[in-house]
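Example (one chain per record):
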Amino acid sequence: MAGGKGTRMRSALPKVLHPIWGRPLLGWVISAVRDAGAERVVVVVPPDAAEAVTAVAGDAQTVIQHDQLGTGDAVRCAMPALEGFSGDVLIVSGDTPLLTAELLSGLVAAHGAEGAAGTAATFRIATPGGYGRVIRDAAGIRIVEAKDATAAELAIDEVNAGLYVFDADALRPALAGLTNDNAQGEYYLPDVVPAIAAAGGRVSASLVADASLLLGVNTRVELAEAAQIIRGRILETHLLAGAGIVDPATTYIDAEVELAPDCVVHPFTILRGTTRLAAGAEAGPHSVLTDATLESGAQAGPFAHLRAGSHLHAGARVGAFAETKNAEIGPRSKVPHLSYIGDATIGEDTNIGAGNITANYDGVSKHRTTIGDRVRTGSDCVFVAPVEIGDDATTGAGSIITGDVPAEALAIARARQVNKEHYAKRKRDA
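Predicted structure:
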């Protein structure tokens, strides 16, 4: 269910699209559901966010809840997409990014072991607040929304997590019979519980020991809390797999980043998108890599910024205060410091001098710079693309290269130095 308005986020962005480490909230939920073994995923979305949510839902099917009439109505909107299906239906909220595949598969297993027509996940909380209370009796359970509960019911500390498994054939008629005769004037999904019980089905509750896994995100504060927990999970996964993360407290890694055993990530480093570090590669310290690839022995940092499409081949290095974008840096080649290398291909064993720039944009289009093998460029060179520098060529410091340089040639493109004798004296006497 991803149809909530998320007004407490104070954001124009739909709540379920707020990112956590390279994935939207909804993406984390769908991933957990998929990993738990779901064969089909249906996402209920509001009309004003349908296009945006569909774009991130992957191969999940989206259906629109045209009117915000409650959780029961949301599930009712989804059921036509499951026409003919007679198995278990797992219902989760799209704003619960901490759910794990283990929790979800365990809930489905408990549902099957009980032979239940419906199972609700529950947890205990010291201050239940606005959660629906779970009332257990000989017939199973019933759930009472906080606004409709009596004083005695409000004292109960077992609450509804909003996470369910239902037999599809038991769920359909229960949904059809829902009414909105309650304090909110909405169609509550928990109201299917007594309806299923009245039809002779058993509804059970499965108590979740770790309530933190059920955290729903409704504010930016809760978003930050969830992000911190997920960040810890990502770091732990990489560390246990053999990646060398020097200081996890100052390292930030997106969900889709790949780290091979024996790579090294130094402190104050951010790895974004689909960045990949091979064994022996090093990133940081104080570096940002986005959709970049570092092969074995490659280094980026300190204070390096590798943007999308940066590829450092084996033994290559991008150093301090250098930026690359859509750039191939060949084996053992170096961009040591203070340079911008964009839309460029650099061969092997080439050294780029300090302060070099590939001027890749002419105001209309991007153009590529190609620099060959074993090239030596002087400091403060500008390569005005498109331009090609041949193997074993050299460029003089301060040159603005606007034409191709042949292999093994020396290119100097700068004004000749002129010294004006006695300039200071003439200026004083003027």
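Caption: The chain has two domains: 7-214, 220-411.
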